[in-house]
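Troubleshooting entry. Yesterday's outputs looked truncated, so today I'm pasting the complete records for two proteins to confirm everything comes through intact. If either block looks cut off, that's the bug. Protein one:
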Amino acid sequence: MENISNTIPLRDFGGDGEPLHFLHANGYPPACYLPLLNRLKNGYHVYGMYLRPLWERYSPEELTDWQLLSDDFLRFLNGKNTSKVIAVGHSLGAIVSLRAAIQAPGYFRALILIDPVLFPPIFISGWRFIQFLGLGYKLHPLIPTAQKRRRNFDDLDILFTAYRRKKIFRYLNDEYLRILINGLVKPAPGSGYELAYSPEWEVKIYYTGVSSDADIWRELPKLNLPLLIIRGAETNTFFPSTAARIQRIFPSTKVVTVEKSTHLVPLERPEKVSEIIFGFLEKMQ
């Protein structure tokens, strides 16, 4: 196995206290989350590795499922040689963190999942059947949009105006939307801006998710860590039935629903999300 633990890129957001590692969602680099992470660093040392789609010289073709990303995370933690971390992940980052914690719980002190991409077993079976039929790229609700996503921009104010009209960002205020946009892009060669997270990687992440998650349900009862799940009240990803199933399997799980929020709850409600996280962690002291 390639030794990449010392070359995995990360961002250190600063702060004092216990280590708190944050792992981002598909398509959303860590800088998109500054309103949340700047609050969390008031009590913890916050840092986060970049998932493989943000690395240089790696191709989406090497990804067959999300286990590779959890393996990357464990290599990263092993290379850091730090004390047990509080792992916080959003969406894809939540599942990558959960898989890593199930596989190697000794690296973790607590696990906080924000609207994880975890579906009931019957949904997983249905997606596997769709992939078997070769229809995954056509029937996944997010892939067609990602395939057509614009990647180059001359003016971020024009991008802000366009995003301000999108329903998906309806709960982000103007300040948070501008921070999001600045986090999504990087300077392009020559002039202007380009997406930091390529549409090709975004599509491959969507396609390779979910189908292997039956093992999460099998292994979840063995998890022995404090577990908090934060979900958006209007999420289309982490269903109430999924939350109830987790609480039956792992009764100590705390699930909190944030009103007037969606799957993007950490971007929309950073004040509330940080308040929930601080409250949960304070009770662990």
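Protein two, checking that the full record survives here as well:
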Amino acid sequence: MRSDIVIISHGVHLSAWHYEAETDDLTTARGRPCVVMAHGLGGTKDSGLEPYAERFAAAGADVVLFDYRGFGLSEGHPRQVVDHRRHREDYHAAVAHARALPDVDPDRIVLWGTSNSGGHVIAVAAEDPLIAGVMSQGAAMDGAAAVLNVWSYAGPRQLLRLTAHAAIDIVWSVLNRRPHHVQLAGEPESLAAMSADDSLPGYSAIWGPSFVNQMAARGLLLYLLNRPVTRAKRLRMPVHLVIANYDSIAPTSGMAKVAKRVRGPVRVERLDVGHFDIYVGDPFEQTVKAQTEFLRSL
């Protein structure tokens, strides 16, 4: 039931999959709901997200799962630039595409995000009050806190190294040179955006064939400006949050603040797992079951 589609975002072709609902359980006279999904920090649609999309489709929702500009199979240059502003623009483009799909109810668009995109969906929903619901898991809600978190598990030297490489990449971008890359996930003490003990084994367990384990270093400084927690008060639609209590990457305090600030109904599920555990095994089953129940309630 999955087909390849193309979404246009700011003149660039985004690679996406459209899953059609497998049942009519959620269909009304106006059509079916549609879940719009994308991955986190540098992730691609083939990196552990298919099982979620398949479950939502089995429950009776359409799903649009896409890659950001410059990532995976999407077009766009320069490649591997993590920029929350562009990513959110791509989410908005995917939402517009979803609303125009045959048999989809344009008033029942649901945003789903994980890790970095778990924050994006809060910001995107804040800009689009017609979003019917939001699902966010293991989310980075405060970029400044996430960057400072590197200090807590890797020390000040690592943070200084990453900052220096980010500065080099910014200079290169001004000179129109190719991006200067660092690893997305690496071993402890390696030059990587994520180098906690579980980063490399956790990410490598889910990354797919189109995933590239690198990002333009400038994204580390851009990340300081990514603070979706400040937008949470604008949300009045239902929100479902999944917090990984032992998250080494995204500080859980940000999600707790979002839960308090959202003005619509909020469901919070806490799991005693790490950042990457949520994609596999029992944590995945528990999470996707709760998310599917949330979807049915909208």
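Both blocks look complete. Sanity check on protein two: The first strand starts at residue 2 and ends at 9.
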